From TrEMBL:
CDD domains, per database record: NmrA_like_SDR_a
Domain spans labelled NmrA-like: 6-282
A molecular function GO annotation: oxidoreductase activity
Record protein name field: NAD(P)-binding protein
Protein family per UniProt: Belongs to the NmrA-type oxidoreductase family.
GO cellular component terms listed in the entry, alphabetical order: nucleus
Keywords assigned: NADP, Oxidoreductase
InterPro entries for this protein: NAD(P)-bd_dom_sf, NmrA-like, NmrA-like_oxidored
Superkingdom to which the source organism belongs: Eukaryota
Length: 309
């Protein structure tokens, strides 16, 4: 019997991934249960004001609260956020999968990553990658209908991470510093606040096409040097790319960059980017130029030059 999606539970609803999904599905008539920890937060209340959105309080450590939230829904969008002190991603990811199975959810969409430890044969370990990969294997082992989306590096990291992009007013230039990543290494990029929601709309409309699929969504692969060239074009200002030092407080990020810097590894190497089924249904990923003009330059209190983007 074909899967029909009308009602969706969305995790991470007040964050970038989940928020993108909530807004996109709300705009196209789906009913959404926005899973949040605090229904009284300002972000949660903003979501509740959107058409078709209701808030549901969940505790990822309490499977009963998840089953209650999932009962009667057609699909679940599941994502986790890494905690560098005491990661619970595996436990939380497994709990969401178990709740989907118990509630009879028709499609479980998991925001996945590859296992860096497996790819490098134990040479490197990046917990946020390897934990998500462990959850992927668990989801496959329990036999629920699932789809796995692979995002890539977030364009928004230039805004989210302090010091990743700055404007030097004295010298009238923009400076990019992306941790210990080499500036000539290309990475798959997504504008998470827009692209994930667009992908979710396509999956919700054509769920049977995506069951069991690894879905890479990035359609932009650029190095920091190329970012700088684009920013310079859009802003009309000099843009300097700098390879910053590794950050001792973020060992998993450092290992992710070591993986990229090695040169012999590529993220999502075995996947078509973006997934051809997404392209079949008209998916158009955000361009880096549009991100710069619409988000990065306003963040830096700058303006795009006319017609640059």
């Amino acid at each position: 019997m074909p899967i029909i999606v009308k009602t969706v539970v969305v995790h991470g609803a007040t964050g970038q991934q989940g928020g993108s999904v909530v807004r996109a599905l709300s705009s196209t008539g789906y009913r959404i249960r926005a899973a949040v920890r605090d229904v009284d937060s300002a972000k949660a209340k903003d979501l509740a004001a959107l058409p078709g959105v209701e808030l549901v309080k969940v505790d990822l450590a309490d499977i009963d609260s998840l089953i209650t939230a999932y009962t009667g829904v057609d699909a679940v969008f599941a994502c986790t956020f890494p905690d560098r002190v005491n990661s619970q991603e595996v436990a939380h990811g497994k709990a969401m999968a178990d709740a989907s199975k118990a509630a009879g959810v028709k499609l479980h969409v998991w925001s996945a990553l590859e296992s860096i430890k497996t790819i490098t044969k134990g040479e490197l370990f990046a917990q946020h990658f390897d934990d998500k990969a462990a959850v992927t294997e668990y989801i496959k082992s329990i036999g629920i209908p699932a789809a796995y989306i692979y995002l890539g590096s977030f364009m928004e990291n230039y805004i989210n991470f302090p010091g990743a992009s700055t404007y030097d007013a004295e010298h009238d230039k923009i400076v990019l510093k992306y941790g210990g990543l080499r500036t000539d290494i290309p990475l798959p990029m997504v504008r998470v606040s827009k692209d994930v929601g667009e992908v979710a709309k396509i999956i919700a409309a054509h769920p049977d096409d995506f069951v069991g699929q690894d879905i890479a969504i990035a359609d932009v692969t650029l190095s920091i040097k190329e970012h700088a060239a684009t920013i310079q074009k859009v802003s009309g200002k000099q843009c300097q790319d700098v390879q910053g030092p590794e950050l001792p407080q973020f060992p998993n990020i450092n290992n992710m960059y070591r993986f990229a810097n090695d040169g012999k590894y590529k993220f999502f190497a075995g996947m078509q980017q973006p997934n051809p089924i997404l392209k079949k249904y008209g998916f158009q990923a955000s361009t880096f130029e549009s991100f710069v003009a619409e988000a990065l330059l306003p963040h830096l209190k700058l303006e795009a030059v006319k017609d640059a983007a």
